[in-house]
């Protein structure tokens, strides 16, 4: 897959348990020659969890990308008029962000980036991670799946015995999903076998 020179917006929301699986894929994208522009939700900026310091994570990812992170809504808005992103990746995309995106709400830097980017009719890729994918958010997945220029990283139930409504993306398939989306294709199959427990 050829991602060399591609400008990718990396929009990160607060599914903290997936950060350790996301970071190697960020490194892969950089090795493939992509230019990453990190965007962090307010929850990522302000919430530490049992999975580690988000300040350290932000610093690490921003350092790897070599670009200043977008941390405020007003910093995300110019993504639209400047049009410098080829593709936007929301990874991980929480159920909260998914629901707001489906309803056109833009109250975080990530959601403003998505709105600004989509106005340019360029691809947006969702790497899902939510405990209510097969519950309250099922309708939003369906809505966004049928929305022009929105694509999904393949996903599956991550712990069907203990969390039957939970689904998580196969993060290792992020690069190929991005490459397909840049060609206007949804990578298949979208629904896969069980993901790693999170």
UniProtKB/TrEMBL annotation:
Pfam families the UniProt entry points to: Flavoprotein
Gene3D superfamilies: Flavin prenyltransferase-like
InterPro entries in UniProt: Dipicolinic_acid_synth_B, Flavin_trans-like, Flavoprotein
Limits of the Flavoprotein domain: 7-172
Segment forming the signal sequence: none
One GO MF term: catalytic activity
Superkingdom of this protein's organism: Bacteria
Protein name (Swiss-Prot/TrEMBL): Dipicolinate synthase subunit B
